[in-house]
# Entry
Amino acid sequence: QVQVVQSGSEVKEPGASVTVSCKTSGYTFTAYGLSWVRQAPGQGLEWMGWIYGYDGSAHYAQNFQGRVTMTRDISTDTAYMELRSLRSDDTAVYYCARQISMIAGYMDVWGKGTTVTVSS
Amino acid sequence: DIQMTQSPSSLSASVGDRVTISCRASQTIRTFLNWYQQMPGKAPKLLIYTASTLHSGVFSRFNGSGFGTDFTLTISSLQPDDFATYFCQQTYKTPLTFGGGTRIEIK
# Structure
């Protein structure tokens, strides 16, 4: 079955970077993309960007441009999201979700989420 | 950016009730509208995509409709597992945006 397994919780100091991984299985990694979505405590969902498994091309939300990098490794069917210059308001649960296309697509399989806490 | 406005932000209902949630886009998004259900402490789950298509395994009591800017999610007969928060999302244009959510509570 299709699975998306995320890396474990992280605690970081302000100014640091964090990398969250998303290992997939059960489908053809290069035929789909993956979106990254975050949810601050008690808040709604915020889309961060999307990466295409086929060629690794990524599209980032303007709010994160310059601070986020999404990559993938087709040898392990794993996607990565690095967020730099962390601030306290980056404290959130970060999700990856399979999404076949960025436009007109939908997030049909989600990871369980990775809690990132930014605190000094 | 396309703003997605859900209403109500919360509602109280009983098992067996018919429940309707609205989602309005700030500009046309044709039918590129998805609905997700989120239980507390869990990841969202896809319910409906392209406004009205039921995702595999989702119960038929969930129904989506709409086109352009106005969309509706209806639960025909609320079940105990349906008490959750529901989000709409547009994928017509980047940045992809979500509604603020509608929390369904037990009356």
About this structure: The longest strand of chain A covers residues 18-25. The two ends of chain A are 40 Å apart (CA to CA). Chain A is about 0% helix and 50% strand.
